[in-house]
Write a structure and sequence with these properties.
This protein has eight helices and no strands. By secondary structure, the protein is mostly helical.
């Protein structure tokens, strides 16, 4: 097996493990598993996998993080693929969001989501071998780093603006058991995603501060 295939298999395995963990948790919390839940899991998995690419560089000296350095490109492209599926699934569920009325009402988080997708598309575009050569390694890394951070921050804002009302209801004990929510005492899965993203963002800010200092 070629080294390229091995890298893709490692990236796929890590993504599958993250996908499985979110799937199990949401099934336990919700009590069912359907396309709506799968769509949530796709989005959460994409964010966590993308976050690993941002952590791999600063934490590369840690033994179990070091192998991630060799598959950062594969992880990033896998995260993009998951985002594409998340967008497609969301569009196919428009009836659940009352067609376009939900998207119009939630235009701010939707806009941040679109910004993230565009940034990811640009990352995929410049990740082609021909573009890496034409840009040069140093310039390519700078653009990739900028676009990666932009996409991650946009997704963070997308998540916070969209989900914080539900977090407040859960923290204040207003979440009740319904046919679509078996265990309301369990924290929303999006809250875990928020904490993971917040730690990654704060750590990257800290690393950038030390680098400039």
């Amino acid at each position: 097996m070629s080294e390229s295939k091995k890298r893709w298999m490692r990236a796929a395995f890590i993504s599958f493990v993250v996908f499985l963990l979110f799937s199990v948790y949401l099934y336990l919390r919700r009590g069912y598993y359907d396309v709506y839940i799968i769509n949530k899991v796709l989005g959460s998995t994409a964010v966590v996998v993308a976050g690993l690419t941002l952590l791999a560089g600063p934490l590369r000296r840690i033994r179990f993080i070091t192998p991630l350095m060799t598959i950062r490109r594969q992880l990033g492209l896998t995260a993009f693929g998951l985002v594409v599926f998340h967008v497609i699934f969301s569009l196919f569920q428009m009836e659940r969001f009352e067609w376009f009325s939900w998207y119009i009402e939630e235009w701010i988080p939707v806009t941040f989501g679109i910004i993230a997708v565009i940034a990811w598309i640009c990352m995929v575009y410049i990740s082609r071998d021909s573009k890496i050569v034409s840009l040069g390694a140093d310039r390519w890394k700078k653009w990739l780093s900028f676009l990666g951070k932009l996409a991650f921050l946009a997704i963070f804002l997308h998540l916070v603006i969209l989900k914080y009302p539900g977090w407040i209801r859960w923290f204040t004990g207003q979440t009740r058991q319904t046919p679509e929510l078996l265990n309301p005492s369990y924290p929303p899965a999006s809250l875990f995603v928020f904490l993971i993203m917040l730690v990654i963002i704060l750590y990257r800010i800290y690393c950038d501060f030390l680098r400039k200092k």
